[in-house]
Amino acid sequence: MSNDPITLAAMTRRHFFGKSAAGLGGVALASLLPGVGTAKAGADVQGASFGVPHFKPRAKRIIYLFQSGGPAQQDLFDHKPRLNAEHGEQLPASIRQGQRLTGMSAHQSSIPVAGSPFKFAQHGQSGGWFSDLLPHTAQIADELCVVRSLYTEAINHDPAITFFQTGSQIAGRPSMGAWINYGLGSSNQNLPAFIVLVTANKGGQPLYARLWGSGFLDSRHQGVQLRAGAEPVLYLSDPDGLCRSGRRAMLDTMRELNQSQFEHELDPEIESRIAQYEMAYRMQTSVPEVTDLSDEPASTYDLYGEDAKKPGTFAANCLLARRLAERGVRFIQLYHQGWDQHGGLLGGLRTQCGETDQASAGLVKDLRQRGLLDDTLVIWGGEFGRTSYCQGPLTPNRFGRDHHPRCFTVWMAGGGVKQGLVHGQTDEYGYNIVDGGIHVHDLNATILHLMGMDHERLFVKHQGRRMRLTDVHGRVCHELLA
Fold first, then answer.
1. Which residues contact 190 (CB under 8 A, 6 or more apart)?
2. What is the domain range of residue 11?
3. Is residue 229 part of a domain?
4. What is the CATH number of the domain that holds 450?
5. Does some domain include residue 37?
6. Among 306, 419, 310, which residue's Cα sits nearest to residue 359?
7. Same domain, residue pair 128 and 151
8. Euclidean distance between the first and final Cα of the chain, in Å?
């Protein structure tokens, strides 16, 4: 960093006016948009770089149920009778159209069509199709906005999940939660704005902390992972022999030292370090309270299922997500691994749906009955779909499906999306989109729009260009909005 006094003075002015503009602008717009950015009376917006939405939001918070591995759309949501009628026959070349395959099936001498082994039925007034693996999700068909025509660019897991979460296949960009935290800040002074919950003891494709990282944004915007067990956040508890007053005195001394360093170096990360120490101190009280499920009535477990009593399960994390949403946490990211059925699809999908179906639907029902669904956006989906042909030998019980980025399904509920909508259409083989295609950038632009942010205006100048979650394209899908 330059020690030139003119440069330092400019940095000081920039820092002051940047802080002042965000603060004063936030006060002004907050007076025009009552209730925006606050979870409860008296709560202040903390840590926002933009401070306020660009326009009035439809959603105040997001619960993102990410199903890592790629759920098979034609076995869950996208009913394709032709697959069953032509089970075992070769996928027509006119359908594949020379599209690339992964290295796992590109050299197969045969690519036979694989019909779904599961039964489908229509549900609700919307008439949405759901397989018998999803009886609880089927019950909320008229709450859901089902998008059957999503497509992505990546064909393998790591770049695909990175693309979904950060808008780039290359690691190092800020995650969606970090962007939202950067734009809107926190509406709870005692909990992070961005919290991550990962289903414990699940195999499957690995997950990395960079998926909820802040990239080139300030580190205060990264996600904080809550773990199952006695210590939800590592190193948060006081060590033996250190009392609360001693901890406070230590933090006060560290604040003085860090403040002195900041005044000398003008590095904003030093301010972030101070803020994170203070947040950790407040979380010593707030985290044990929010993660203690003992005050939940029996009716709660009727909604989410008995697994919700077991810390670290997907069901328990869905229940915890509702509790975090009630306390004003703005972005809650759940990850559930194991949807990568290259083989053993019959048993694998039964297991995955058994772990997630009731809790996912229970979360939507719970938010609705508590009056939270209208301003909470719930998202369910993975990084891509699966092929309509079989990977490997087509056997009755062990067959699987390869990765398929050309078309797949996600669903959303609440937070300003249409209820009972089934959007988009794929061909008779469920291989290509024939109507209503939505790119990952389009989906992310729409999510930001629902949170009150223009995806083209939410950017940071980095390495000589304006960087944003949607990179250089993407559109808001108004056809999905209520």
1. 282, 283, 285, 286
2. 1-32
3. yes
4. 3.40.720.10
5. no
6. 306
7. yes
8. 49
Indicate whether 100 belongs to any domain.
yes
Query: Which tokens hold the place of 397?
Result: 């019980």
Query: Contact, 475 vs 438, CB < 8 A?
Result: no
Both 205 and 228 in one domain: the answer is yes
**What integer pLDDT is reported at residue 281 of this predicted model?**
67
Tally of structural domains, the chain:
2
Length of the chain: 482
- Is the Cβ–Cβ distance between 377 and 60 less than 8 Å? no
For residue 19, is it within any domain?
yes
Of 12-26, 28-42, 133-147, 456-470, least confident by mean pLDDT is 28-42
Lowest mean pLDDT among 11-25, 147-161, 435-449: 11-25
Judged by DSSP in three states, 437 sits in coil
Same domain for 23 and 87, yes or no, is no
Determine the average pLDDT of the residues in 138-142.
98
Contact status, residue 424 vs residue 147, Cβ threshold 8 Å: yes
Q: Which residue has the tokens 């407040």?
A: 282
> What's the distance, CA 259 to chain centroid?
35
Average pLDDT, the chain: 88
Nearest to 403 by CA among 40, 158, 91, 143: 158
Q: How many CB atoms lie within 10 A of CB 170?
A: 9
Query: Does 217 share its domain with 179?
Result: yes
Query: In terms of domains, do 24 and 107 share one?
Result: no
**Among the listed ranges 27-36, 57-66, 443-452, which one has the minimum average pLDDT value?**
27-36
State the pTM of this model.
0.86
Give the confidence band of 288 by pLDDT, cuts at 50, 70, 90.
Answer: confident
**Residue 407 corresponds to which tokens in the numbers above?**
């078309």
Q: Which of 19-33, 128-142, 332-346, 445-459 has the lowest mean pLDDT?
A: 19-33
pLDDT bucket at 252, cuts 50 / 70 / 90: confident
198 and 316 fall within a common domain: yes
Name, in order, each residue with C-beta under 8 angstroms of 213's C-beta and a sequence gap of 6 or more. 174, 175, 178, 222, 223
Dihedral sign for Cα 115, 119, 122, 128, please: negative
Could you tell me the two tokens for 151?
């497509």
Question: What does the angle CA 225 – CA 228 – CA 231 come to, to the nearest 5 degrees?
Answer: 80
Does residue 38 register a pLDDT over 80? no
| Backbone phi and psi for residue 372, each to the nearest 5 degrees, phi listed first | -105, -15
Distance, in Å, from the CA atom of 323 to the CA atom of 327, rounded to the nearest integer, reads 7
21 and 119 belong to one structural domain: no
Once rounded to an integer, what is the mean pLDDT over residues 394-419? 96
- The verdict on 158 and 15 lying in the same domain is no
pLDDT at 193 (0 to 100): 94
Of 361, 376, 375, 380, the closest CA to residue 319 belongs to: 361
Q: Which residue has the tokens 């950015």?
A: 37
